[in-house]
Amino acid sequence: MRNLVLLGGGYGNMRILLRLLPNNLPLDMQITLIDRTPFHSLKTEFYAVAAGTSTDKDIRVSFPEHERLKVMYGEVVEVNRETKEVVLESGEHVPYDELVVGLGCEDKYHGVPGADEFTYSIQTIGKARRTYKEVCGLPSGSTVGIVGAGLSGIEMASELRESRPDLNVKLFDRGERILRDFPEKLSRYVQQWFDKHNVDVVANSNITKVEQGKLYNHDNIIDVDAVVWTAGVQPVKIVRDMDVEKDKFDRPIVTQYFYTPEDEHVFFVGDCASSTLPPTAQLAEEQAEHIVRVLKARWRHEELPEKMPEIKLKGFMGSLGKKQGFVHLADTTLTGRIARLMKSGLLWMYKRQND
Fold first, then answer.
1. Could you say which DSSP state residue 246 is in?
2. Which of 19, 48, 129, 166 is exposed most, by the fewest CB atoms within 10 A?
3. Are β-strands 98-101 and 2-7 bridged in parallel, bridged antiparallel, or unpaired?
4. What are phi and psi of 14, to 5 degrees?
5. Interval 79-92: pLDDT, tens
6. How far apart are CA 353 and CA 355, in angstroms?
7. CB of 234 within 8 A of CB of 106?
8. Distance in angstroms (rounded) separating the CA atoms of residues 47 and 284
């Protein structure tokens, strides 16, 4: 049997499984999925686990079951393109004919001293659990600093305010306004929510150092009891160490077919793949659709399309606690309760289609 190996059970590889199983896999092909956990985690909701407003169970989706799908659990330590094998921490070698690398990302600290050592993360479900244990275990009146006011930082700050109204929450934003690259109406709405709910947004911030109990913003020292870092990501180390050409963000450069120019049998998806579009679950799923199209054509011995369709993202959604939210779709901005219900509905639909 030929072996299609999927590294990581994230949004991209889940979409590949959804499209290939049960009836679109050649009879001489099997799939091996390798992940460190025995379930797919909804990464877009890790902030809620960290804030204590959702549980692990709320954001888990079981991997599909199929006679030609083998699921392995373990830590990937090497991809050997010469021998076409994936090496696991256990020492096991997994051969592949086609490989899709979707191992996700980790925090990028931009060289800020102490950031790695003295901050908490929401990049994996395990790290989100540890963040919950620390942040939600703080005494009343403690101060939590959240570094980075992108979508993850905004949702973390708002959910923590809802979970622990007795904490002081400070959100550090490099820009002059929240979501500076999006319509000012949306920025004002989010800022007004934070003002109303006593979340201190520190604009034009530049975190230069982190120490135990202290954040350095420019020359100012701010006392904090815990810091959550949401100020940028990079591919996981195994991907950064791979011998392929990468962009300035250390993401492997891919062709329009999403395999690396150095090796047409190694694909990258999601946070692992270079793109001009912002890294989102939606992007990973669209990239996966392209990879499935390429794989099917290859298995049928067909020529690949001369020009693959351009990926266009539909927009984005965000929550402000469990009752308010915002949606930006097709240059239209919607805020409030309806926007939050739309996000909840999308989450429900996603979980249902992957059951």
1. B
2. 166
3. parallel
4. -65, -40
5. 999 999 999 999 99
6. 6
7. yes
8. 19
The pTM assigned to this predicted structure is 0.94
C-alpha–C-alpha distance, residues 186 and 182, integer Å: 7
- 313 near 37, Cβ under 8 Å? no
Cα(241)–Cα(288) distance, integer angstroms: 23
Q: Quick one: tokens of 242?
A: 């791979």
The H-assigned helical ranges of the chain are 11-20, 46-51, 115-118, 125-135, 151-163, 184-196, 237-240, 281-299, 337-353
For residues 331 and 242, give the distance between their C-alpha atoms in angstroms, rounded to a whole number: 38
**Cβ proximity of 49 and 55 under 8 Å:** yes
* CB 295 within 8 Å of CB 264: no
Measured CA distances, 134 to 114, 167, 175, 222 (Å): 18, 13, 28, 19
Beta-carbon-side half-sphere exposure of residue 340 (alpha carbons within 13 Å): 13
User: Radius of gyration of the chain from Cα atoms?
Assistant: 21
- Give 26: exposed, middle or buried? Use CB within 10 Å, 0-12, 13-18, 19+: middle
Q: How many CA atoms are closer than 13 Å to the CA of 123, on its beta-carbon side?
A: 21
CA 317 to chain centre: 14
Instruction: Name every residue whose Cβ is closer than 8 Å to that of residue 331 and which is 6 or more positions away in sequence.
Output: none
CA-nearest of 31, 55, 42, 15 to 291 is 15
Q: What is the rounded distance in angstroms from the CA atom of residue 147 to the CA atom of residue 255?
A: 34
